[in-house]
Amino acid sequence: MSHALILPILLPLVTGAGQLLLYRLPFGVQRLMGIASTLGLVLLGLWALVIAGSGEYHLYHAGDWPAPFGIVLVLDRLSAIMLALTAVLGFCCLLYASSGTDKRGAHFHALFQFQLAGLNGAFLTGDLFNLFVFFEILLIASYALLLHGGGRARSRAGLHYVIINLVSSALFLIALGTLYGLTGTLNMADLALRVAEAPAEDAPLLAAASLILLVVFGIKAAVLPLLFWLPRAYSASSAPVAALFAIMTKVGIYAILRVFLLVFALGEAPVNATAWGWLWPLALLTLALGGVGVLGSNSLRTLTAYLVILSVGTLLATISLVTPGSLGAALFYLIHSTAMTAVFFLLADLLGRQREAGYDRFSAVGPIGHRWLLGTLFFVAGIAMVGLPPFSGFVSKAWILQASAQEPQGLWLWGVLLAAALLTLIAISRTGSNWFWRPDDMARPYPLERGPLALVFAMVGLNGLLAAFGEPVMGYLELTAEQLLDPQAYIAAVLPQAIASAQEIAP
Amino acid sequence: MELLYAITLGVLTTCGIYLVLRARTFTVILGLTLLSHAVNLYLFASGRLVAGAPAIVGLSERSADPLPQALVLTAIVIGFAMTAFVVVLALKAAVELRNDHVDGENPDEDRA
């Protein structure tokens, strides 16, 4: 058993604790520790991608307790993708924050590390209660990060965000209690077997528990009736924090994938059929609302928050088709949309600081400094966001449309997705022409910070690279989708003895 | 015992949900506390209610399930920390926004 598998959780946790202890040292030390740890996470993420690429499941038994009794960490292709994505995104956000945002409040770097630890733990764990614990770790870090910098808007948004997440934690525990009461286990693989064998009279309770879990993950992911906390929270937080939060909704989507494609997927009448039935119309409505919200936003940050909602709707609608093609396409879109919404949150800050008036509000009309340079950046990023070639948004959307065309209900997705893309295109080009085209050059532009600018350029470039190397990435994602749709292999890896004994009895 | 337990849970949850839906932060926090009590008791009951039995298998004929107790302990600790945090946050918001409404504005005063 290799202990390296727990490093993605331990490294940020220890670094964060160290940063708290060394709080009195010069600020640069904290920054360097944070950047070093996050760079380590990037390397760990790449390593995870490589070792999970073989299709093998890598396990870590905490305390060396055997699987259904102890807590296991499971690394498969999906976990590896999420780990690598979080690490790269975290690295970019931390670099951006190190240009000055991190000094606006206390303990930014320690909180950032705890947030990463919680995220990585949620992506690795193979135990449902442990998932709850890691959710709480990432949430409590995110509460504090959201409030970082202070101010009235943040307190207001923070209160909503904290309260709705506390209620969702209570619901999560209710679902866990129900599942434990019915099956006597919380290990995901074991749970999948027991749910499949559950007697028929338990089916309604199991369906109820699964739908409560769907509500919990829906609050995290921001699905339609549960998304109204998101625009205010995301647009109130500071730019690097909002950019990191781009992965937070994806945690909900990851949890939906993991739980509904593994725990509730087996048996003669799988429990997850009900969940997919609910998810499909809700996701389409979320997507439509995202499109309308993008058009109706009053600032670039709110617009980006609605872009997050739009991406969640697209993802969940594609996922709820549950075919290998649609899952692969959804994962590609997940990577693209996480990166691009993060870019847009950073861009809103970068552009807002160069505007003479109004920061990122659309109502304010005024000149902007460095018009050509920033305008070009916004134009390129806008193309990448909307999903026009040559960026990965185009590849992912084409793949989603292609995958959904094979399904009878896929036409709905075509219509809503393309309409929402059109609305996004209008909103972004309106922003571009209002900010860059109409006003004159600023007489004395504010000094341009080269570091953050180069970083945002690099992130857009990475998005282009993702499209350029689309083929190997797509191959990897197709294999990931196949692995996701084969829960038996996961169970066999986590509980080898259970599968062996089942086969002895079966013939 | 099961009936009494279930009624207690129901009353706690009802009160909790009612209070969470109120407009002022203090009552909302009280509601969250009641809700988390109800949830902790519910988790505890998921291992079935057994009286007078040790939580170790094999010591006597009947044994209580120890795992829900461990789960409840974790949930209590997390719930306690979260309540402390939300109390501080509500105080901060009340000071900064000059009122204790969950939306940050008093609908009767501000729009008058």
Automatic annotation (TrEMBL), chain A:
<dbReference type="InterPro" id="IPR003918">
    <property type="entry name" value="NADH_UbQ_OxRdtase"/>
</dbReference>
<feature type="transmembrane region" description="Helical">
    <location>
        <begin position="242"/>
        <end position="266"/>
    </location>
</feature>
<feature type="transmembrane region" description="Helical">
    <location>
        <begin position="74"/>
        <end position="97"/>
    </location>
</feature>
<feature type="transmembrane region" description="Helical">
    <location>
        <begin position="128"/>
        <end position="147"/>
    </location>
</feature>
<feature type="transmembrane region" description="Helical">
    <location>
        <begin position="411"/>
        <end position="430"/>
    </location>
</feature>
<feature type="transmembrane region" description="Helical">
    <location>
        <begin position="203"/>
        <end position="230"/>
    </location>
</feature>
<dbReference type="InterPro" id="IPR001750">
    <property type="entry name" value="ND/Mrp_TM"/>
</dbReference>
<keyword id="KW-0472">Membrane</keyword>
<keyword id="KW-1003">Cell membrane</keyword>
<feature type="transmembrane region" description="Helical">
    <location>
        <begin position="303"/>
        <end position="323"/>
    </location>
</feature>
<dbReference type="Pfam" id="PF00361">
    <property type="entry name" value="Proton_antipo_M"/>
</dbReference>
<feature type="transmembrane region" description="Helical">
    <location>
        <begin position="451"/>
        <end position="470"/>
    </location>
</feature>
<feature type="transmembrane region" description="Helical">
    <location>
        <begin position="329"/>
        <end position="351"/>
    </location>
</feature>
<feature type="transmembrane region" description="Helical">
    <location>
        <begin position="32"/>
        <end position="53"/>
    </location>
</feature>
<protein>
    <submittedName>
        <fullName>Monovalent cation/H+ antiporter subunit D</fullName>
    </submittedName>
</protein>
<keyword id="KW-1133">Transmembrane helix</keyword>
<keyword id="KW-0812">Transmembrane</keyword>
<feature type="transmembrane region" description="Helical">
    <location>
        <begin position="278"/>
        <end position="296"/>
    </location>
</feature>
<feature type="transmembrane region" description="Helical">
    <location>
        <begin position="372"/>
        <end position="391"/>
    </location>
</feature>
<dbReference type="InterPro" id="IPR050586">
    <property type="entry name" value="CPA3_Na-H_Antiporter_D"/>
</dbReference>
<feature type="transmembrane region" description="Helical">
    <location>
        <begin position="159"/>
        <end position="183"/>
    </location>
</feature>
<feature type="domain" description="NADH:quinone oxidoreductase/Mrp antiporter transmembrane">
    <location>
        <begin position="126"/>
        <end position="416"/>
    </location>
</feature>
TrEMBL record, chain B:
<keyword id="KW-1133">Transmembrane helix</keyword>
<comment type="similarity">
    <text>Belongs to the CPA3 antiporters (TC 2.A.63) subunit C family.</text>
</comment>
<keyword id="KW-1003">Cell membrane</keyword>
<keyword id="KW-0812">Transmembrane</keyword>
<feature type="transmembrane region" description="Helical">
    <location>
        <begin position="70"/>
        <end position="91"/>
    </location>
</feature>
<protein>
    <submittedName>
        <fullName>Na+/H+ antiporter subunit C</fullName>
    </submittedName>
</protein>
<feature type="transmembrane region" description="Helical">
    <location>
        <begin position="28"/>
        <end position="50"/>
    </location>
</feature>
<dbReference type="InterPro" id="IPR050601">
    <property type="entry name" value="CPA3_antiporter_subunitC"/>
</dbReference>
<dbReference type="InterPro" id="IPR039428">
    <property type="entry name" value="NUOK/Mnh_C1-like"/>
</dbReference>
<dbReference type="Pfam" id="PF00420">
    <property type="entry name" value="Oxidored_q2"/>
</dbReference>
<keyword id="KW-0472">Membrane</keyword>
<feature type="transmembrane region" description="Helical">
    <location>
        <begin position="6"/>
        <end position="21"/>
    </location>
</feature>
